[in-house]
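Regression check, adenosine-5'-triphosphate case 422:
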Amino acid sequence: MKRDSAVDLVGLLSVEGEELAASWVREVATSLGGRIGVAELDRELRELHGALREALREGAVDVHSEQMSEVRALLTELSRNRARQGFSPSETAMSVFALKRVLEPVLQNGSAETIRAYLQLGRILDGLGLFAIETYTQTRDELITTQAEQLLELSTPVVRLWDGVIAVPLVGTLDSARTQVVMEKLLQALVDTGSEQAIIDITGVPAVDTQVAQHLLKTIVAARLMGAECTVSGISPQIAQTIVALGIEFDGIVTKASLADALKLALRRSGVDMVAHEGVQR
Amino acid sequence: MTAPWSAGEEPQVYPIARSGDVVHIRQAIRALSQQCRLSLVDQTKMITAASELARNTLTYGGGGTVSAGMVSVDGRRGVAAVFEDSGPGISDVEQAMTDGWTSGGGLGLGLSGARRLVDDFQLRTAPGEGTAVTIIKWVR
Ligand SMILES: Nc1ncnc2c1ncn2[C@@H]1O[C@H](COP(=O)(O)OP(=O)(O)OP(=O)(O)O)[C@@H](O)[C@H]1O
Ligand SMILES: [Mg+2]
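Current build output:
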């Protein structure tokens, strides 16, 4: 019985042989609106068609069957590519579901056997479609995680303001991971540039809580151990009041209202004198 | 002050399960505080208090939820948030509320600091029965 139905399923996929695969490719190409190379699509779907026929011949009953491993591998590849190329989950699943549509003509004047085989294949294809969506989502999640990590790196520049003076402008919400990255980068930059003055500018930070404060304090202590002095600049009135109410003590830490004031201080400490030339209006 | 919401003021409930949730909650409290027209200083205080309590819920309470929304009593309007967990609870509340006391590696200023940052602060806890902290900031 099982053997028979397998023969029927295989038969279904072999009805028009190469013509079936070609129709499948055409159907999918239309649904993707020419945003994918036909040659690439042709290769993908013909391979999938061949593998699926083979799997069914060997008696695969659903997407999880042992015999489906080759199909799953090809489908994983296809879904990953779609996710990377920016196609939607529906467009990805369509690549599978289109095969059902292409097979519909066999239902016309089809025997009871054929109809049963079509329905059974339909269920298998539904499973494969869901599998494609799952793989797609997984790939998307991986992409987002990678981008978040990259953003973490990108959004924390350490800039050299002067010989021996570096600064980190902090912008946005600081969570633990980001603060940690910034602080490590700052300490590394002190070493790399041989700077002795560092300015941490928090003008763009909306809130400083105990965790952020603790990271700041630890960094300042670590910088000191490395022989460098830190200045915190850009503390807005509302953050100053919040810090006081929280009870955080910034004792012994130099703070300045603006980055400009902090730079002036850092330059003076490094022995740079700034002189306004006579006759130059400031 | 168990549930600060009056009729027709349904709070939003947010999960506190990962550190990313704390960031999300700060943003939600910011939006509420702006909507309620809290002053910039009061917005920052409320956001910071919420940040402290959300992280305590996560770190010590093993995760939980926060319900946040607007409240109005006798014509006064404000932003309220209730942080709840079913963690170990706090056995010595006085000690936990002491500036500088921490059982972890923190500054020990979260709870006591949060109380100073808001207008209303209520802590309900029992050993083995979790912790609930309610805070409100009123529009001046
Ligand atoms: N939800 C909670 N469940 C159980 N214990 C708690 C909870 N919240 C706070 N505590 C206890 O109270 C102590 C004090 O909390 P508090 O927030 O003041 O300091 P901290 O979290 O240790 O450090 P900080 O908040 O300054 O970074 C904590 O160390 C912890 O032992
Ligand atoms: Mg805390």
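Comparison notes: Chain A touches chain B through 21 residues (CB under 8 Å). The pocket of magnesium ion (ligand 2) is lined by residues B 52, 55-56, 106, 110 (CB under 6 Å). No diff flagged against the previous build.
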